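Entry for the shared binder. Reason: the reviewer on the internal report wants the predicted structure included alongside the sequence.
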Amino acid sequence: MAIDRVSLVEEQLVRFLKDAETTSSGSASSPAAILGPEDPIRPGSSLTASRAVELWADQVLSRSIDAEARRLKATNRSFYTISSAGHEQNAVVGAQLRLTDPCFLHYRSGGLMMARSRKAPEVDPALDTLLSICARADDPISAGRHKVWGSRRLWVPPQTSTIASHLPKAVGMAFALGRARRLGHDPDGLPDDAIVCCTFGDASANHATALTGINSARYALRRGNPVPVLFICEDNGLGISVDTPSRWIRESFGGMRNLRYFEADLDAEVDEVWDVVEEAIHLCRTRKLPVFLRLATVRLWGHAGSDIELAYRSQAEIDDTESRDPILRNARRLVGTGAAAPADLLRILETTRERVRAAGEEAAGRRPLESVAEVMAPLAPFDAAAVRVEAEGKVDPERRRAFWGQELPEETANPVKRTMAAHLSAGLADEMLRRPEILVFGEDVGKKGGVYYVTAGLQKRFGVGRVLDTLLDETTILGVAQGAGLAGFLPVPEIQYLAYVHNALDQLRGEAASLQFFSAGQFRNPMVVRMAGLAYQKGFGGHFHNDNSIGGLRDIPGLVLATPARGDDAVRMFRGCAALAAACGRVVVFLEPIALYHEKDLYEEGDGLWLSDYPAPGEAILPGEVGMYAYVPGSGDAPGAGDAPG
């Protein structure tokens, strides 16, 4: 018969507290003096007795929820047993961050979430978490669609795989906060000194997306940009069954330039951990630079409820891990310093377990989502009226005339300015003129103006604050887009070629396009991702420039894919895409056909039938609409002259 490791760990904590009431021997000896609530538990530390007790209560709450999840799973009333047990020291981070510091959390950051919830008394973290664990419709973040750490009130956007795929967007948001300050943009009400917190495991730190995120933060700082992101590696030494080499995290990240490194080891007392975290947060906030904190933890009770640890760990190793329970260690510290009496801690433990048991029963009794329509409701939001209003908006004519000078795009007769590339360039400029929240970024979009010159001149017109070159990494580009979208911008990133997006596709599939679904529409990261693709122009192409592989995009739930065939349609469609992103928060890929960028002729050289007039402001093609054109051979008119989409 299997031994119940959950009960063993719970019982050793109770046994210590009860023994501490009746004996003065060993580590449970009575302190020389009982501390007052505002006394530091150690001279020189800012952790007071009252805050230490609150912190311990938050850790106990997280642990009790994990135990309740196992109990409910035993009767098939819950669906998630990956726990935060052994990681509760991350509550120290939650206690010190502000509610205006966005958090992108690892699935073992329960302690952090409980401590953060204490700052919002109206939030019931026990019931909220158990509703999520039981996949109930009243779950306040995902409405029962997924077990995620998330809260609109607590500024915690829900994450999906958590295998480091959230690091690029966390860096993107930190970068966007700095860009917002520079441009005078309101980043969804966040203050100027907000920082972004991102937690992940030691095994995940090896993932390509983790290395991408950390590298991009260092790169951005090296380029002179503020990047207030706090990377927290919760290092328990295991990736399911694979152990992390000793000191691997320190050796990998401790010596990096443009990244400040801190760590709190397993043998550190809670007040020592508190002081390290305090210093790391202060540096990140005041210097606005990326900080890496290795927070040593242990993993109790296996990877999840279905994980049989004895298949890859010895009983001695499991016993040693359980002896390092951070909640037990912290209880010893509180009693030993006089911050709390054993009876007080025992009372917190018992009342918390009772509260969580009641919350578990309450959550399990609530209804789940009951129909396909209910499940899919936030996946692809579309408000046709709102999108139409967004699409038909116009810039003040005098302001637009001043911007363009003597000749508006729709007034030109120059063939070079009537191609698809020229129209897209003008259309993008018009949208930027009327939407100050648009950011354009990607490889070579600034000084060069893009490989096909679609963004030519935009940086000079709108400045490097809104049109910027990035490092050559598609994962970073899409991560910045997500972070900027969360911060209230409307990102228009460019991926140079369709073939280049495949190695970064999860940033669209697993992350960007799923955000509204997993947050029940409470968070959104709108964007219009421009990509050049399909057949190449005459001459050199190669497999990285000729690419029709759109299957990976077409099967992403909620993603909108738009591909124009004509220059005038390209402008109308782009306006519709921008309106859809702005009004409904949608993720849109705007796939631009390379071979048609600069094409002028349709049937024979000199016929000029691929040229078109620039659509007047306010003309747009929205989802479900098509452009219709009439052309009579020999008439001399290009297709579509005088026609409007319908």
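Summary line for the report: Residues 49-74 form the longest helix (26 residues).
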